[in-house]
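Work through this:
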Amino acid sequence: MTDNNCSYCVEGELVAKFGIKICELEASKVYLFKEQSHKGRVIVASKHHVSEMTELSKEERAAFIEDVNHVAEAIHKAFSPDKVNYGAYGDTGHHLHFHLVPKYKDEFEWGGTFAMDPKQKTLSDAEYDALIAELKKYL
């Protein structure tokens, strides 16, 4: 099922407001979050238009979580963060997705909850391309 008002289902301009598609994995789509206060921050969105993990079958849920783990491993290899934080909210956008937020000691928001969109740092197209290329080495 898809939702024509959902940025993850429709992609295009709706996703372009906040992200850049990196790739598709078995159960998900991976996007670089344009706001890069946390170098390497991405979103892993389910290929299924569901609001809750409980709406997926056991197999679909396992595949989605495996994709989240795979992307986290790629972030660790590409950017060497001290920690990756995971956020799955969806109060307003009812499509299952996780924010994977690399955290670095002595940098922005270390020791606290990450802001959804702090509007602190955006990059040039070339800088986005370089981050995506680095992540793709491990995806």
